[in-house]
Amino acid sequence: MKALPHLPVSPRLARTLWLLLAVAATGFSAPAHALRIKEVAAVQGVRSNQLSGYGLVVGLDGTGDQSSQMPITAQAMANYLQQMGISLPPGTRAPQLKNVATVVITAQLPAFAQPGQSIDVSVSSIGNARSLKGGTLIAAPLRGADGEIYALAQGNVVVAGAGASSGGSKVQVNHLSAGRIPDGAQVERSVPTPLHDGDTITLGLDASDFQTARKVAQAINARQGNGTAMAIDGRTVRVKAPQDPGARVNFIAELEELPLPDTSPAAKVVINARTGSIVLNQAVTLGPCAIAHGNLSITIASTPVISQPNPLSQGQTVVAQKSDITIKQEPGNIIQMPASPQLADVVKALNSLGATPQDLLAILQAIKAAGALNAELEVI
Fold first, then answer.
1. Number of neighbours of residue 130 by Cβ within 10 angstroms
2. What range does the record give for the signal peptide (predicted)?
3. Spatial contact of 147 and 101, defined as CB atoms under 8 Å apart
């Protein structure tokens, strides 16, 4: 048999072929990513704290608060100048500050944050400023729920938007009266975290589920020994931990990486009545039922009617409104919904109705009331 001639292959094509072969050889044997404890639970007491404050943004291009309508802006600026040793003479008219805006500053103080570290802050106008773009926040204290100062904020405000107005016309992209300052606050005081208190730690699950709590305890006991962990309820797991701080940190780090066996979540349908959004998880099933959904539409049309008087009658022209009201009700066909044991079947059955998202809100609630929707219905 005659040998086939050798075909030249470019080096780039050869590398591509070897890459495809490598992906094909390893892609089918790659293990699936298992759920870890750190993705369903967190150590209780390790939490962030909310901070808030009040301040002034200066350097605006004439887009600040109108002082006549926002007297607190002029008062706050006068207080700030007085702290700097500058005071207006008595009887001086309050200045019209067009380049200053009063703002509320919010931030989250992470767990274990230490003095000197930086955190991001959000700045939001509370007056009638048109834009905070290009402004600079003057140093302002951020307080916690106890009234103590935990951080100081200052910096240039970053506003992800743009706008322009002229002659009564206005064009705006995104929001201009709120912005952020990356690393805009410096921590001045730390919050004690009870991580090393006692001989146990408590894991709090993100959602209440007895099955998940039991599996978390079983996974810890299988790794650290029986009796190490115990599920207290559907959301709490108590774990024995070493007393030494370094050993406790290593112990928690190992716990967070422990894999959990697959758990089927509780069937739930979440409905947002304001936006018409509907979300179903994979455990939702549908029993057999029949649905009839009709549409009722009412149309009201107003037509102006002009009544013209006769010549030389000294009457007046009168404009009246003639209203036509039409009510149209489309027939609702009864559609038989088969039993749907999988999420794909549920989606296919709901799509067969041809209803809008707003109609599906009412339909799903009716199916749940009839006992054919095997899921918890949550309206947000």
1. 21
2. 1-34
3. no
**What is the residue-wise DSSP string for 193-232?**
-TTSSSSEEEEEESS--HHHHHHHHHHHHHHH-TTSEEE-
d(CA 357, CA 278): 8
Q: Which residues, in sequence order, are CB contacts of 135 under 8 Å at separation 6+? A: 57, 58, 59, 60, 64, 101, 156, 157
Q: Which helix (H) or strand (E) holds 166?
A: strand 162-166
**Residue at token pair 């805006």:** 101
Phi, psi of 83 (to 5 degrees): -65, -30
Q: Write out the H or E segment, with its range, that includes residue 178.
A: strand 178-187
Residue 225, CA distances (Å) to 209, 228, 254, 292 in order: 23, 6, 14, 58
CA-based nearest residue to 287, from 332, 336, 323: 336
Give the contacts of 293 (CB within 8 A, at least 6 positions apart).
Answer: 332, 353, 355, 359, 362, 363
CA distance 60 to 208: 49
Q: Which residues of 327-347 are buried (b: 16+ CB within 10 A; e: fewer)?
A: eeeeeeeeeebeebeebeebe
Reduce the DSSP state of residue 118 to 3 states and report it: strand
- What stretches of 49-148 show up as alpha helix (H) in DSSP? 71-83
How confident is the model over 270-327, as pLDDT tens digits?
888 788 788 888 888 888 888 776 665 556 566 777 777 777 667 777 777 666 666 5
Query: Where on the phi/psi map is residue 155: left (φ > 0), alpha (ψ -120 to 50), or beta?
Result: left
Tokens 């149309």 belong to residue: 299
Q: What is the pTM of this model?
A: 0.68
